[in-house]
Amino acid sequence: MTPAEMIAELDAALLAAGSTVKLRKTNTAVGQVTVRARVRFYKPDEIAGIIQQGDSKVVLSPTGLEVFGVPPQNGFVVVDGAPRRIIAPNPITIDDTLVRIELQVRG
Fold first, then answer.
1. pTM value?
2. Where on the tree of life does the source sit, at the highest rank (predicted)?
3. Mind listing the pLDDT tens digit for each residue in 1-52?
4. The domain that contains 37 carries what CATH number?
5. Domain count, the chain
6. Long-range contacts at 79-85 (CB < 8 A, ≥ 24 apart)
7. What domain range includes position 9?
């Protein structure tokens, strides 16, 4: 599977089963972008290290983030109107192409 095919597959999955969130580099609406994402709480067996109970995992596609870029640590994801702080961004690349972004968020 090529990186483009992986991104297209993720885009389709997020469109079908994701939700709309807003990404912010700071806790203001200036420069925010709206994207589709998969948001879920971590499972009990995933809570270790810096992951705390109540943290969420947010999966994003790079589609629509060409100007915004990878959301930064200490940026914010607004889910259902509530800003959540990004604890750890994890960009995933295949063949030097960004294909997926996973965020650990808190709040």
1. 0.92
2. Bacteria
3. 999 999 999 999 999 999 999 999 998 888 999 999 999 989 889 889 889 9
4. 2.40.10
5. 1
6. 79/19, 79/21, 79/39, 79/105, 82/107, 83/24, 83/27, 83/107, 84/56
7. 3-106
Which helix or strand (DSSP H or E) is residue 58 part of? strand 56-60
Closest C-alpha to 52, from 106, 101, 9, 94: 106
CA distances from residue 62 to 54, 66, 98 in whole angstroms, order as listed: 25, 7, 7
Q: In Å, what is the CA distance from 40 to each residue of 1, 28, 31? A: 26, 24, 25
Distance between CA atoms of 47 and 91, rounded to whole angstroms? Answer: 20
The two three-digit tokens of residue 86, written as one number? 């990004």
- Specify the amino acid at residue 33: V
